[in-house]
């Protein structure tokens, strides 16, 4: 079981250099967890790309549709996160000392803890450092 952060989810939707490796890595998993946070952040990124002219309207619509259909695809599991996730993120932050982790990244790590997931797929080096500091295994598909 592995948790997909937004950077990994975007690799599955957009043609990027690491996309093939991300697909292979995800398909080797029994379960790939996608939280509402990752879904929201992905939708915001896609909208920004559309509004910024990087995506045509038809491409934007197709990518949103693909994200929705992932709900029925193996190995994806869209999991709700408990309300305690923000308190967990705050506790993680307070215990992190001099280690910096952006708020959304910290929320992903707190969601992992709340969901009992110990493995993270990410292409974000800073988040990977923070995840390892919490004892999580990190997969960076390349």
Q: If strands are numbered along the chain, what order do they take across the biggest sheet?
A: 3-2-1-4-5
Q: What integer value in Å does the Rg equal?
A: 15 Å
Q: Structural class, please? A: alpha/beta
Number of DSSP-assigned strands: 5
Please report the first level of CATH classification, the CATH class.
Answer: Alpha Beta
The CATH architecture can be given as 3-Layer(aba) Sandwich
Describe this structure in words.
There is one protein chain. This protein starts with a strand and ends with a strand. Strands 3-2-1-4-5 form a 5-stranded parallel β-sheet, sandwiched between helices. The chain has one domain: Rossmann fold, CATH 3.40.50.1010. It is built from 7 helices and 5 strands. With 142 residues, the protein is α/β, with parallel strands linked by helices.
List the helices and strands and how they pair.
Elements: E1 2-4, H1 6-13, H2 19-27, E2 32-34, H3 36-51, H4 57-69, E3 76-78, H5 85-95, H6 103-115, E4 119-121, H7 125-133, E5 137-139
Parallel strand pairs: 1-2, 1-4, 2-3, 4-5
Helix pairs in contact: 1-2, 1-3, 3-4, 5-6
List keywords for this structure.
142 residues, alpha/beta, Rossmann fold, 56% helix, globular
Put the structure in a nutshell.
The protein is α/β, with parallel strands linked by helices and about 140 residues long.
């Amino acid at each position: 079981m592995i948790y997909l952060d937004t950077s990994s989810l975007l690799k599955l939707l957009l043609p990027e250099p690491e996309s093939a490796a991300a697909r292979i890595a995800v398909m080797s998993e029994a379960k790939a967890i996608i939280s509402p946070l990752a879904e929201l952040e992905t939708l915001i990124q896609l909208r920004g790309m559309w509004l910024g002219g990087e995506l045509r309207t038809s491409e934007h619509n197709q990518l949103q549709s693909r994200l929705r259909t992932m709900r029925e695809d193996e190995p994806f599991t869209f999991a709700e996160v408990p309300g305690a996730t923000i308190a967990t993120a705050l506790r993680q932050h307070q215990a992190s000392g001099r280690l910096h982790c952006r708020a959304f990244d910290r929320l992903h790590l707190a969601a992992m803890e709340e969901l009992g997931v110990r493995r993270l797929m990410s292409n974000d080096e800073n988040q990977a450092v923070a995840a390892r500091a919490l004892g999580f295994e990190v997969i960076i598909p390349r």
